[in-house]
């Protein structure tokens, strides 16, 4: 019994010493506030302000991108419509001659032969 009690006392003493050491370390840290730590705190404050700015800028950029995309899509649609109009115009312009030319070389030769016969 006596040995166990002695052991417990020693353990408690050891724990007390450790706690005291920890407290001392903490005090030192709290007391020492150098220039470096002050600079760090200032920088953190600055970064907090920047965080909000970054978010706002990101939103702005996103809106701009969406607008650009919309404009690009509209331009693409306009171009497509223009091409279709041109195609329709070409079909109208082609007429008979266009169809004859479409047959290729053979068709043209036949037309030539017909012309010779008429002469």
TrEMBL record:
Biased composition (Basic residues): 17-32, 47-63, 88-106
Chain intervals with Basic and acidic residues compositional bias: 1-16, 64-87
Domain of life of the source: Eukaryota
Region (Disordered): 1-119
Annotated protein name in UniProt: Uncharacterized protein
Organism: Knipowitschia caucasica (Caucasian dwarf goby)
């Amino acid at each position: 019994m006596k040995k166990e009690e002695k052991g417990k006392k020693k353990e408690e003493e050891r724990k007390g010493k450790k706690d005291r050491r920890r407290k001392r370390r903490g005090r030192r840290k709290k007391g020492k506030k150098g220039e470096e730590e002050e600079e760090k705190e200032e920088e953190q404050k600055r970064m907090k302000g920047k965080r909000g700015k970054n978010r706002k800028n990101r939103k702005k950029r996103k809106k701009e991108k969406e607008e650009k995309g919309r404009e690009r899509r509209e331009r693409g649609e306009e171009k497509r419509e223009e091409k279709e109009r041109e195609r329709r115009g070409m079909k109208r312009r082609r007429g008979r001659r266009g169809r004859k030319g479409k047959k290729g070389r053979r068709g043209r030769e036949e037309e030539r032969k017909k012309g010779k016969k008429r002469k």
